[in-house]
Amino acid sequence: MPNNHEIPAGPSGPDDEWNDFVRRFEAEESGLQPPPRARRVWPLNLGLALMAAGAAFVVLKYTGASADDGTAAPAPAASAPARATTSAAPSIAPSRGTVAAAGGTRPMMPLAELFPADVKGASGATFTRLGSTVMESCTEPDGVGPRLAAMIEDSAGCVGEQIAFYKDDRNNQFNVAVFTMKDPQDTLKLVTELAMAFDDYQVAVQAPPAGSGLPPLPADSGLVQAFTGHGRVMVVAMGQWSDGRTADFQKLVDRMKPLQDAVSQKVGAHEGKG
Fold it and tell me: How far apart, in whole angstroms, are the C-alpha atoms of residue 55 and residue 89?
């Protein structure tokens, strides 16, 4: 994969820099934030479109033991409405089963048990799973960005990554990625650092599966993402409106929550068994 992560900028000079400064100053004075500069979308091979622009909304939560006293870790949160970048891609691959544990580590939760076929929220929203699979590794260029890959390489190891694509009854699109680490402390670090870097997407987003009737969303579509950690496991939930609009992010986060909670609860129950 090329090392350059930015779209080459056009020629600029002192006037351009001054105008940029003035626009940012006026935005800050009015309580608005200027949109982030677009970043390129990395080419992918497994039907995944990697989000590589500023985050639309980020939520963070971790439940697990700390290294010192066994108490639950705090749950900080951060948010920043903005624009996201995506591209069209074919559907995700069929399920390949559960990756076996390496070096005696407990295996991941079985794929069939991890992602419910249907999830119903208290508000009446219904989520339907359209596809799921197990990635070949946790650091595939088609699945994660270079920063997350480096963090995983520096960790005690990752057992595997599992992904799923959902739609709701209004054709909004949702992705869930689950990373099972070998050390719970690595999970806590990943959840914290990824959520705090809310202008940097590092987890791939899948295009709608073929035959789903869902259109690939345009490049300027909005996106929300939320992180939860449960022992060894990090759950990343991502959502986009059916029309790709860059508005009503909190409503989209709230709408995604039943799906995120359903997967997180299954993960928590599995990890609690030891």
Answer: 20
In sequence order, the 6+-apart residues with CB closer than 8 A to the CB of 260 are 176, 226, 228, 235, 237
Phi, psi of 130 (to 5 degrees): -105, -15
Per-residue pLDDT of 50-76, as tens digits, reads 332 223 344 555 555 433 333 333 333
| CA–CA dist 236, 215 (Å, integer) | 22
Q: Are strands 173-181 and 204-206 parallel, antiparallel or unpaired?
A: unpaired
> For the CA atoms of the chain, what is the radius of gyration?
19
Residue 94's identity, in one-letter code, is P
Give the separation between CA 193 and CA 116, rounded to whole angstroms. Answer: 28
CA 9 from chain centre, in angstroms, equals 27
**Partners of residue 50 on adjacent β-strands:** 204
- Label each residue of 90-129 as H, E or C: CCCCCCCCCCCCCCCCCCCCCHHHHCCCEEECCCCCEEEE
Strands (E), the chain: 48-50, 58-63, 118-120, 126-134, 158-168, 173-181, 204-206, 224-230, 233-240
Residues 87-140 have pLDDT tens digits of: 223 223 333 333 333 434 789 999 999 999 999 998 889 999 999 999 999 999
